Amino acid sequence: MSLREANKQANREAILDAAREVFAEIGYGAATVRDIVRGTDLATGTFYNYFPDKEAVFRALLEESATEVRARARAARRAATSFEEFVEHAYRAAYEFLAEDPQFFELMQRNAGTIATQFHEPLFGMSASELEEDLRGAVRAGIVPDHDTAYMAAAMVGTAFEVGVRMIERRPPDVAGATRFSTELFLGGMMQMRHAT
User: Which of 12, 39, 71, 152 is surrounded by the most beta carbons within 10 Å?
Assistant: First the structure.
């Protein structure tokens, strides 16, 4: 990497780090570009070389975290040897990620409403489509019962997001309780569907 590229990467990271702190402390709605720039050694004009506005920075932060949590959940699902493991390990991976990063934890808690309004956008939709793909593979392998994988994926992702938001409101976050609740809720519902057919 050239010195120029390294400098560009360092500037972008400085902006993202400052934005994480600002969004966690005062929230997306109250934050301004000026607040973010104040947390760096950069000039305001430099900010606009990397991001057009605060929404773009916010989305970049969410995308960075969503990429990591998706990778962890997907690895957990693909290592599963039973339906229960498929569900439980994926939920645990997501909830552990939320709980282990205190600053992201605060950002999620303070900005849950804003994040919820962007939930159906591509960065979150990708996790539902990846989950649906994994569900189809698990159905073919005989690990997951054969039901509508699009509905199952939507239910799992929606539950993970909503329960995750409630989990991070607790001090300390209850990863085990959130995992158990989500797993039992989903598996219990699927068992009811099996009995109904």
Answer: 152
Are 20 and 103 spatial neighbours (Cβ–Cβ below 8 Å)? yes
Quick: pLDDT tens for 24-55.
899 999 999 999 999 999 999 999 999 999 99
**Total domains in the fold of the chain:** 2
Both tokens assigned to 19: 């934005």
Q: Which amino acid is at 154?
A: A
Q: 155: Cβ–Cβ under 8 A, 6 or more apart, which residues?
A: 186, 189
Domain, as residue range, for 13: 1-52
The CATH number assigned to the domain holding 128 equals 1.10.357
| SS3 state of residue 194 | helix
Taking the C-alpha atoms of residue 111 and residue 116, their distance in angstroms, rounded to an integer, is 9
Same domain for 31 and 91? no
